[in-house]
Amino acid sequence: MRSSTQYAAFFAATRLLSPSNALPAPQAGINSPDNIDIPTADPVGPPGATGSLRGPTSLLGFNPSIPEATSGTTDISPDDFQLPPGSLEDPDTGLYLDMSTVENPQPIRGGNGKVPTDPGPRNYAYDRINSDLFAPPGTDSGDAPNAVWPLGLSHNRHGLQGSGWARQQNVDELPVATAMAGVNMRLEPHAYRELHWHKANEWSLMLNGSARLTAVNEAGQTFVDDLTAGDVWFFPAGIPHSIQARDNGVEFLLVFDDGEFSEDETFLVSELFERNPKSVLAKNLRTDTSAFDNIPDGQLWIFPGTPEPADIEKQNETGPAGVIPQEQSYSYHFSQQAPYEVPGGTIKIIDTENFPIASNFAAALITIEPGAMREIHWHTKSDEWDYFLAGQARLTVFIAPQSSRTFDFHAGDVGYVPVPNAHYLENTGNETVVYLEVLQAPIYNDISVNQWLGLTPSQIVKDHLQLPDDVISKLPKTKPFLVPGNRDLTTTNFTEEAL
Length: 499
Fold this sequence. Notes:
10% of the residues lie in helices and 28% in strands. The chain is mainly beta.
């Protein structure tokens, strides 16, 4: 590990140019006509300040009177760093390099294990959790847009009186994510996300706790439901709704079908009333203007509320139009859906086949066991927006004609892959990966490389890829979704694990 002492030579060099040793400094004062547009041309600091803010022009270019550079070496001895398993393998093998516990990690993959090194300055924590960017596989090529954004780096806006918070990802944080944006929101017990509506469609996955939702559609039909962790809701653009946390509070993920969506541009009922004349409000609600003396001064957004009745029927307000029909319900109890199990993990799909109201949202909640991976695939109709609920993984995105880049993901990260770029997702940790794939499509869809090649005449596959006959003969004719692996991430032979 390199310390601040490594830069002693640099600071020593600067001392050679201290006021007592330096070449003459510029003599023009701050009031000199030559410096009329440079307000800091001469020392203007507090009492005791010494020296000049700028050096002399004699430092430009070669000058034999300037001392020869004496800074130390940039070399790092192999005794001063560790290499994770797999570092010395062929770079094109592209093994995952687990740098989480190694001392002074270096960007070494293949070669003699000694170069290249990074003397710093560095952020060691970022290097360790992004080893595929720090020491990329040899197969990475060309340029690719960033595909990962940790929500932990997003600004966290707090609600009133400690009632909750929200943070978001849109094109400001992840420019490639042009079709979708995400919000992570937390409400303390009984707190509200106030009555509101959006310009964009809103799809949500409950992460923790429970909440009560209410809404009214254009026909005057009403909706109320209690949701818990793992459930999903959807509100079309323009539909007004409220969210209130129940006794144990709630945390949820929101996905919007607009990459430029901002949580701060929501239509709020508090702002609606504050931004209209009180006389208009009185006329609209058939009352006196004094009724609005106590409306909120400023938006409520997230704020403390009174406890909701335990009996949901007490909040089941209906008019002549009645309730929203079940087939058009704004909620789906996804937590109760049994997963589809395959070797390597599980997958649950929700799209218009089982949640019709979400007309252009399709999603898959996927678990990947340690060592396993989401097979190489791509989507035909939509970009893919991802959110990681647990574990760690890596993804290589292939972009035609010859670019690829590998990214590392951890719980709380957002990922994004534009259509129709090919990619996989490999579990690189010791715990099960849980992540969400969201598409802008009525039906979940993908192309499996395994199935594609398995359903292509073997002669064509061999002419193109020169694969051995035994490999071609084992290609599956059904879609695996996931493929099993080995907890030992240095494993390179999976011959015995047929799909």
